[in-house]
Amino acid sequence: MTAITPDIIAQHGLKPDEYAKVLEILGREPNLTELGIFSVMWSEHCSYKSSKKWLKTLPTKAPWVIRGPGENAGVIDIGDNQAIIFKMESHNHPSFIEPYQGAATGVGGILRDVFTMGARPIANLNALRFGDPAHPKTRHLVAGVVSGIGGYGNCVGVPTVGGEVNFHPSYNGNILVNAMTVGLADKDRIFYSAAAGIGNPVVYVGSKTGRDGIHGATMASAEFDEKSEEKRPTVQVGDPFTEKLLIEACLELMATDAIVAIQDMGAAGLTSSSFEMASKGGLGIEMNLDLVPMREEGMSAYEIMLSESQERMLMVIKPGREDLARAVFEKWELDFAIVGHLTDTGRMVLSRHGEIVADLPIDPLALASPEYDRPWVQPTKRQPVDAREIETVCPVEALKTLLGTPDLASRRWIWEQYDHMVMGDTVQRPGGDAAVVRVHATGKGVAITTDVTPRYVVADPYEGGRQAVAEAYRNLSAVGALPLAVTDNLNFGNPEKPEIMGQIVEAIRGMGQACRELDFPVVSGNVSLYNETQGEAILPTPAIGGVGLLADVSRSATIDIKGTGNAIVLIGETKGWLGASLYLREICGREEGSPPPVALHRERRAGELVRQLIGDGLVQASHDISDGGLLVAVAEMAMASKDQIGVALDAPSTLPLHAWCFGEDQGRYVLEVRDDDLPTVLEEAVEHDTAVRVIGRTGGHVISVGGRAIAIEELVKVHEGWLPAYMNGTVE
Amino acid sequence: MKAAIIVFPGSNCDRDVAVVLEASLGYRPLMVWHRDTDLPDLDLIVVPGGFSYGDYLRCGAMAAHSPVLREVKARAEKGTRVLGICNGFQILTEAGLLPGVLMRNRDLRFICRDVHLRVETDATDFTRGYQAGQVVRFPIAHAEGNFFADAETVKAIEGNGQVAFRYCDADGAVTEAANPNGSLGNIAGIYNPGRTVLGLMPHPERLAEDLLGGSDGKTMFDSLVEALS
């Protein structure tokens, strides 16, 4: 038997004080299998030990929330006995090491989190962050991640309908791959993971267990160094075909009364799934590991318990229903094995080759994982910049440049590699403010978006956290959907550094405040820390996945300009905030300034106004104003227009022109409104106490402002050109 | 008219085509599991899109040898109409019901987007609702849709009027720029010599409702219902 040395303990990522706690819980030394189990259960990835204290402060309740954080995914009520189940999760570390498989298994994992609760997945989204386009690895990583997401999502037959992509040098050594799945379930048929019924069989289904992915969760809880490439064997390999079969088999069995509890095997595989089910049910489990379907011979108990092989689930079945369940999985040609049963001991007892190989108390592991109150310092906030001190460039030339920059260029090259139409319910395809998917066989729609502006968060984590939530709220409102709830995916550097911990604390505080004031609770989420390479942290990136509801999906608004001679209406206040803007970074080469502040009460009123106008059919086209400001938003509406209809803008003289065009003031929308509807729109805005102004008129095929004009065709060329050219290697 | 949709492990457009066919038919078509070999009387068999058997080995290769496909072939020989969409087209070529092969796309990437197609003939049960030369818009979603056949086969396909659809631009011009995947002769879909079997890469079932962006595809299903009822 392997002796447990300080070296082995350190290799398992356990700190000396954590190991002391292990000894205290067990009253003896653990064996290697037991140490491995402690190590993954207490990894940052599984235990949230650095962030737990702060996550607890987020609002998680609303009358329409059926289940908040703590389950595999969050559950909200959308009426008519239907529920939407959703979550976002990171697969950052594996995707950097092996982009195709890392991203593919990220999609697979988040799908399982959703269908394990009884939902049929209806949409996938992805929030991606890559390094500097000029960095030698970036192109390879973009190609691999996109191809992996497509390869998995396309095969399982769930449409990939949206997401976001940023490029920044801080991600050179740590890309971010955050995958989100949204599923639809009957409200009265939601499945949870709490085991129940002493003696009930514990069943393993899906793929066989192999040696892949061992210690993936531990890897995801450490910084990268120059040896990270050596971790390639800890990246799992996905099989979307098996996942598709697993979805169908699980949903088929879920239509019967056979399942008591079910939990997917994600990070830390059989260990976390079995401990979680037992802990939530307050029970014990006895498992015979010899019965686990295995891909390879001679696997040890340690390897079986720590494997992160994909496409596997653990279930507790009602006694007497074993044959029914087995028949369903045999029909779909998946493994099905009764590997153990529930006990009343509160202990996990594992045997292999006739010997007890682990005997651990469940609650101390699952519930008493370390919780840290890590030291943190208030982040240094950047000072505001004065628009008058910022270089002025011809506005349409600046617009043309901006539309071809990596952060604003069209993502068509990416989303055309994703099947975004399968399932036959995609009402708004990628490219708009939010994706809109019809609730199958109903007139309702679900709107979905992912948002965060990392350059704001780094400049002021509190404001940046508020802005991420507000932008998600705005993107949903811009298509006419009532924002209901969010999932969050918090990506940060090393929490043991007080400055990074300060970013985490402040970003969560900002998010929490915005969620509270916008009635937009957090129902699920995931934390990814240690996104650092050789001491360099990523920009703090708390990605928000927002979900909203359209009572009548046929009324959703789109961004494309529909006709000529219509009014262009600006909703919200414009002060010309250029701090931390794309204009400042891309045109002036300055990453400075404090980010635009979010006034949540105004945000809420503007959102209510826009949703009402869209619902009343008074809006021809609608777009939120975000990255790049007003002129970029208007150009995006024109470029999306079927006939490339232009806009003549009338800038006010009260602001410097570049500040009006490119300021990133929050809480704003651009609407296209017919003259007949204009009086009502203006009245409603006053009614909602929201700033409103007619700023231009549609027509022609150019964007004109401040006496300058540029053809839409020219903008389209630049906008559509960058990413394909970059991926072909013709531009940096 | 009686219609059935074949479901393989890995099919993922079976429900989509069932929804659209139901809208034309007025009732739900029969869903046939790949192990079933006992088919009732049928007028139309649809082999839907997806990744049958995970597309392992080669797209459609394993499905072409499944038990149900033997039955589909026998029915096709007796004149039952067979429609293969996307992976279904790949399966029909692998099964020898249609000539040619579908290779990896020219750019080696999966492509999901709307394309324009020219309807080559309206003298079939599949296309009688269109007009020859009409330009329609269907989406494609595939990584292996690059139609290829040897010169003799192509000559025969062209000579017999077996080309069903060609990729074209919005004005109907069949150009290289309008060819999304490198298919020979911009071929997007073909018939068997009797024009009772159609295979095509684009998905008519995906644009069969205005709410989803267009309804050009619905005409194909309406045509079949009208012809076979």
Walk me through the structure:
- The complex is a heterodimer of chains A (732) and B (229).
- With 732 residues, chain A is α+β, with helices and mostly antiparallel strands.
- Chain A has a domain at 557-732: Phosphoribosyl-aminoimidazole Synthetase, Chain A, domain 2.
- Chain A contains 25 helices and 28 strands.
- In chain A, the strands form 5 sheets. Chain A has a 7-stranded mixed beta sheet. In chain A, strands 23-25-22-26-24-27-28 form a 7-stranded mixed beta sheet, sandwiched between helices.
- In chain A, strand 12 and strand 13 form a beta hairpin.
- In chain A, helix 15 runs parallel beside helix 25 (712-728) and helix 18 packs parallel to helix 19.
- The N and C termini of chain A lie far apart (55 Å).
- Chain B is an alpha/beta fold.
- Chain B has a single domain, classed as 3-Layer(aba) Sandwich (Rossmann fold), CATH 3.40.50.
- Helices cover 22% and strands 24% of the residues of chain B.
- Chain B contains 5 helices and 11 strands, in the order βαββαβαββββαβββα.
- In chain B, helix 1 (14-25) links the parallel strand 1 (3-7) and strand 2 (30-33).
- In chain B, helix 1 (14-25) crosses helix 5.
- The longest helix of chain B is centred in the first third of the chain and has 12 residues, at 14-25.
- Classes of the chains: A alpha+beta (732), B alpha/beta (229).
- Chains A and B meet through helix 8 and helix 10 of A and helix 1 and strand 6 of B.
- Chain B: It comes from Magnetospirillum fulvum MGU-K5.
- Chain B: It is found in: Cytoplasm.
- Chain B: The active site is at 86 (nucleophile), 203, 205.
- Chain B: InterPro entries: Class_I_gatase-like, PRibForGlyAmidine_synth_PurQ.
- Chain B: Its EC number is 6.3.5.3, 3.5.1.2.
